[in-house]
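I'll show a typical protein example:
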Amino acid sequence: MVKCFSLIIALSLLVASAIGKEVISGESDGDFIIRQVVDGGGVNGASNGDDLLLGAEHHFSVFKQKFGKSYASKEEHDHRFRVFKANLKRAQRHQALDPSATHGVTQFSDLTPSEFRRSFLGLRSRRLGLPEDANKAPILPTDGLPADFDWRDKGAVTEVKNQGSCGSCWSFSATGALEGANFLATGKLVSLSEQQLVDCDHECDPEEKGSCDSGCNGGLMNSAFEYTLKSGGLMKEQDYPYTGTDRGTCKFDKSKIAASVANFSVVSLDEEQIAANLVKNGPLAVAINAVFMQTYIRGVSCPYICSRHLDHGVLLVGYGSEGYAPIRMKDKPYWIIKNSWGANWGENGYYKICRGRNICGVDSMVSTVAAVHTAAN
């Protein structure tokens, strides 16, 4: 217990000292703090990673085969191997700070943190939270909420999708929420078009200059809902398929609208309200800091420290608890997050993250959307 308490104090001091420091070597603020915490003495006996690197060539060979990686030149291959070795040590640092999850080699292990953020994240927001004048969801009763809940079991969630190397996470978060809302409104699960948002949505956040939905360069879920409300709705995925690029022209056909937005609102930061809105209104569009997600493999991610700078849009589909947590003397409560990096990432495309402490900012930007029945359904 003393060791844990000392660790918490040390982490708190490091957070305070790190505030205001600039990003170093392409690392985000979260990466910088993590490196300082672990490399500055280790956590739970973590070594400096030298032992891990002894087998780096073997790990890299397995990685290339598993994920079908090939490189155009020896120079590129050697560069990616250096990045891979750095990410082995990074995964080890993440494991030390997030022992209830498993971290290791993923399909992103040959990417630098900045490359990963540029190609696979894409939330365009410099502030934490939502506009003061945003439409706020009404406060819901929280008595009698189920202990575990999962919209996947009720047929409200489409299969895991893959945004590819395009910073369009925001569009997948928005369509996922509307797919669930449309299911509640019509009884039918229809996969909706992210590409329509990528090509056609240029809605801007009025409170942030320059924060406009911008295809593979990022966007915001609430702005996507605003576009969908103004345009009349979204087409089906099969009618407007995803290409993973933003170089095409808008091909929106209003006669093929499959789902329309009735209204949308932001949810209180209170976790009981988030759970109540999830149960009543369907899957929720949420933002998160994805620093631990680059190396995540499975388990409940509950890092001792994580930046709350929001950089990734995902879909909240449920909650539960599992795994004994000795510090809390009970199971770890968690949120179930649907991601958009394909079913080969994480737990079949899903991420479990701790409930209770706004870990990685997961409670900071949450939106619910309601759908209306349309003729195309």
Observations:
- Residues 319 and 335 are 4 Å apart (CA to CA).
